[in-house]
Amino acid sequence: MHYEFPCLHSGITFLNHAAVSPIPDSARRAIREAADLLAESGPVEHAKWFARLKQARERAAALLHCAPGEVAFMRNTTGGLLTVAEGIEWKPGDNVLLPAGDFPSNRYPWLGLQRRGVEIRYVQPAPGQIGLTADDFVPLIDSRTRVVSVSWVHYATGFRIALEPLGELCAQRGALFVVDAIQGLGAIPLNVKAAKIDYLSADGHKWLLGPEGAGVFYASDDAKDRLDYGLKGWLGVPDPLAFHLEQEPTPEARRFEEGALNMLGIFGLSESMRVLLETGIESVWRAICNFNDELVDGLRAKGYTIDSPLLETVRSGILSVSRQGVNADETVRRLQDGGIFISSRDGRLRISPHFYNTRQDIRRLLDALP
């Protein structure tokens, strides 16, 4: 699959997939082909576009292990979370449980509900614990908890919360389980049914290796009808081309797509998902873990502390590290000047390789780090 990634041959070393990722060559070709078609013939080939949209939906469903009818496309992760937050019929005194210190995309859509009298409750990890477990949510969940919303993987520490126990807790307590999956989907195997997830949102530009502005949204068959979504649009009906009819929303998740989609972005994302599916997500995940294991050995030899969990059940593709005397921001800038790309978060270096990287990429970073 290395031929799919031109960035491997561009003179840079890209180990920053927890930010915005390079897209594979097939995604670039799909976007170009769609743009060429649009430039040369306008909407004449519009039937082909809907066929490709159907294919993209099927590929997203395969990644999530759900039915295509449970998948919609959104402009970004926040768009999906806002769809849920604004679609629930809230009552004053209801509450939402969020992890303390989560990424803003999983805070602001819920904070906006305070104007309706909804209480936001932050769940703190136990002393000495990096991330959260389902047990940490138990003291705060009650009969007025309408939603528990979590980031699957923490953007800075790389901690991956165990979804299945939390999904089971939500099911038992009657709360909707919402997941921001952008830092895991495309890298780590996921079965939304096994995890009892009601809604999931993830833009495509990180581990899914897609372009920005085209994201995946999942709404389970059981949960779709629990949203009284006011922003109804012409694409969210059973037959969007029957312009003369006034139709009820389709029973499928695409009811949330409203109007014209970012088709070029979705076609690119579709090809990125094809690359991941053909490689196999289990194989993708093994490759990422192997690269991070090699990084851990090399970093420890240079005196770095590993600040991300390494236990199989809670690790992710993100490796957060630090070393006394090493300024993370300055180090990232210096590495970038040399063509090596990682990030700094919370005063630490954040490294995030993907499956297509090479051992030479890992070695080049280790050699360049102070």
Query: How would you sum up the global shape?
Result: globular
- Looking at the structure, the CATH topology of the largest domain is Aspartate Aminotransferase, domain 2
Q: Largest sheet at a glance? A: 7 strands, mixed
What number of structural domains do the residues give? 2
Query: For the terminal residues, how far apart are their CA atoms?
Result: 32 Å
| Architecture (CATH level 2) name of the largest domain | 3-Layer(aba) Sandwich
Number of strands: 13
**Rg on CA atoms, Å:** 21 Å
CATH superfamily of the largest domain: Type I PLP-dependent aspartate aminotransferase-like (Major domain)
**Average predicted local confidence, pLDDT:** 94
Low-pLDDT residue intervals, each spanning 5 or more residues = none
Order of H and E elements: EHHEHEHEHEHEEEHHHEEHEEEH
- Helical stretch count? 11
Approximately how much beta-strand content do the residues carry?
5-15%
The strands making up the biggest β-sheet line up spatially as: 2-8-7-6-5-3-4
The CATH C-level class name of the largest domain: Alpha Beta
